[in-house]
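User: For a benchmark we're assembling, each entry needs the component sequences followed by a predicted structure for the full assembly. Here are entry 17's components. Please fill in the structure.
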Amino acid sequence: MKILVCISHVPDTTSRINFIDNNTKFDTSGVQYIIGPYDDYALARAVELKESSGASVTVINVGLAETEPTLRKALAIGADDAIRINADPSDSYFVAAQIAEHAKGYDLILMGRESIDYNSGVVHAMVGEMLGIPSVSPVMKLDIEGDKVKMAREIEGGKEYVEAKLPIVAGCQEPIAEWKIPNMRGIMSARTKPLKVAEPKATEKAVTHIRYDLPPPKGAVKMISADNVEQLVQLLKTEAKVL
Amino acid sequence: MKALVLAESAEGKIKKTSLEAIAYAHALGGTVTAIALGTVSKDELAGLGKFGAEKVLHASDPRLDHPVIGAYASVLEQAFAQENCDCLVLATSSIGVPAAAKVAVKTGAGFVCNVVDLPDTSSGFKLRKSIYTGKAFSTVDLSSPKKVIAIRKNAVTLKETGGVAAVQDFKPALKETDFNTNILSTEKATGEVLLPEANIVVSGGRGMKGPEHWGILEELARSLHAATGCSKPVSDMGWRPHHEHVGQTGVKVAPQLYIAIGISGAIQHLAGVNSSKCIVVINKDAEAPFFKAADYGIVGDAFDVVPKLTAAIKAAK
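Assistant: Structure for entry 17:
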């Protein structure tokens, strides 16, 4: 079985978000980049399937040269080879079109439910549509049984158990697998594993980011005595008007 | 602009988030057609006129009672073409967004998710969307002639305006390949307030000390008709189910009121709640970082404060 795992290269979840150049560019200073946390779950499940059933695992990322350390980390975790599409991933449709171009011939295409920078959560559905195969997200459990995939998908207030025939695309989230930390042997071998760079397929972009802004700063917190919760109820009614 | 709106239902009722999507489409200024899938009463559908839908298409095929993404996408695409629409509007949800993403690919429409405001059409078609899990916003230009817009909760204020919508049966051609995922079973909490939809959320963290202490928190939630949520460590330890995890890698909520009990306020948790209108933090540690993000704070022991708060809310009713 051939597995393709799509990896986003995103700021660490603890990052403070700031913008520069008149709010037109993300401020990368002091920001640590990581494999998208949801993609990391997808990768962990792919490596488990490799260990249990001998699948091959390829990782793919749409990004410029600075994302290569992130791809090397995915190789250290256990992927066999990597593809980097040399382009800025600013539009979901564009990213999906690039992935679909390289995803043919894979049985299982895994990725996170969404990237934690733009949060759209649509690339898996778009890739599925472009390839004419089922897509399921967000997947919390995934098992292969013959030519079928059995999954648990999170829905509002619960879970749905779904089955589909390979090949499929799945957007993953916890607790599909435990995150894997690369060991020394993995890190050493990742240096020599193949990392192919491909130029993007020409695709029209319908969405252009013009400027960014931050939420307005929060006003000072109003502290209330633990012995006077009635005052809180009053304030929620008359001042905040939320009760 | 001719808009089609996905009107999602749960247990026969159109979801409030879908009503917001109809109100959003109405505010765009053109005609609004809503589409409902599966079993919903005609009266419920005619009522969508109040929020601005002129017409409601009803695809009542019982196979659509189950949210099969491929089938939903196929129905939406056929309605979009039949009504000659140029804009599809929907609320962010686990079925709506992937189905709409497929429609975007099928029709060549540009797609913007997590939209928080009405468009600025003074030059181009500019939409403000939430990014970095609520830590920032981006203004994007959506230049394609056909557009798909997925809105966040509270992107528009819900007010009843119009009258009664004309309900029409809609019989899409559904192929076997539209049902290429097979739903085996569903586990769903029924009768409770669903977290993504709730106007008030009561959340607990590690400060609750164990799952056996959730009773006081649930009682507070009941008194407010609120949904219950929790922090990531709480769901990781299995004290509460995963679908209650609020935060960067869990559910993002945008209620009127968010009450955090025994949650310190890690940046990843704040990312999931910072769109809340009002935040109340109850924590015995006066240095908890969550107080900086709160509107109201109480320093105190949850086991003492929460029952008192429940009593005060009941008394004030």
